[in-house]
Design a protein that fits this description.
alpha+beta; six-stranded antiparallel beta sheet; 4 helices; 30% strand; elongated
């Protein structure tokens, strides 16, 4: 049997990773996790799944914000049997579990990274951030020039020729010096047999195959130095190295995506609008008087007689 971990999202389609039943599946924020969840409320190594006999169990690996199956929290360092269809919460993130005979995801390491990058991309897009991968000229006559790798799969050519996507005014650069393209979250380049070669990082880029261009590496063509900027990858690295964020006592998890065709859940009332101006509370009604008019007349007469009697007593004492 295989187990599929479904990353639930209200911002886009669910993301799936399927593992065979022989491996321990680590869930966390760290780059070494099998299910990488780029949210600061998820610990670097938060929880894990593994097969025990005919069952799968979920173990909390000492997380900061806890691991839940439904609304029940698993005690730290303890495990609980999970079933197909269970909803698991780690930090703010909800995960669905599916246990069946589904085929295992190919190239799980790459797929895991793609899931993490997609989650970061959705979050950044929701904030209106520019997530376009760019090549910057950091040294040379064209310093400050930029090439945007906006289209996935398209080959962008760097060289001296005017038709190049990034034309360089560098006499040591060939007319078509290097070809660059991106696929998923990775950027690749291929040297085009330039006379002066292409330097990538500390070595020369091979001309017989494509190689990965990593953000930490500088590329040099002729006397021009190029740098790669990948906003999504940079953000993922920052998130993965950050300290755990402790969730507030009343803070809830991120909402899961509604079933297909179902309306999206309404946000909490506190998020719909700012509180209205305070409304004056109605004053309690005054209790009606229990004294009738006759009662008032009698009481007035009694007070008058008492006053006259006191006045007469005072006059006698003075006499």
């Amino acid at each position: 049997m295989s187990i599929t971990v479904i990353v639930r999202s209200a911002a886009g389609a669910d993301l799936r990773l399927t593992f065979d039943g022989t491996q321990r599946v680590v869930i966390g924020r760290g780059s070494g996790s099998d299910v990488r969840l780029p949210d600061a409320s998820v610990s670097h190594r938060h929880a894990s799944l593994e097969a025990r006999g005919a069952d799968f169990v979920l173990l909390d690996d000492g997380s900061t914000n806890g691991t839940f199956v439904g609304d029940v929290r698993i005690a730290p360092r303890t495990s609980r049997i999970v079933r197909s269809g269970d909803v698991v919460r780690v930090g703010r993130v909800r995960l669905g579990l599916q246990i069946d005979g589904s085929p295992v995801t190919r190239d799980l390491a790459a797929a895991t990274r793609e899931v993490a990058l997609e989650l970061v991309s959705r979050a950044m897009a929701a904030l209106g951030a520019d997530v376009t991968v760019k090549v910057h000229v950091v040294e040379g006559r064209d310093q400050g020039a930029t090439l945007s790798l906006a289209e996935e799969g398209r080959a962008y050519v760097v060289g001296r020729a005017p038709h190049c996507d990034l034309p360089l005014a560098d006499a040591d650069v060939s007319r078509e010096h290097v070809r660059i393209f991106r696929k998923g979250g990775a950027v690749f380049l291929r040297a085009l047999g330039a006379k002066n070669g292409t330097l990538l990082g500390d070595g020369r880029a091979p001309e017989d195959r494509e190689v990965t261009w990593r953000p930490a590496q500088m590329m040099k063509v002729g006397q021009t130095v190029l740098a790669l900027q990948q906003p999504i990858s940079d953000a993922l690295a920052d998130i993965e190295t950050a300290a755990d964020e402790v969730m507030g006592a009343g803070e809830s998890a991120l909402p899961a995506a509604p079933p297909s065709g179902a309306p999206a859940p309404s946000p909490p009332v506190s998020q719909l609008a700012a509180p209205a101006a305070p409304v004056a509370r109605p004053q309690p009604a005054r209790r009606p008087s229990r004294w009738s008019l006759a009662d008032i007349v009698v009481m007035t007469a009694a007070v008058t007689i008492l006053a006259l009697s006191l006045a007469g007593l005072v006059w006698l004492l003075r006499g």
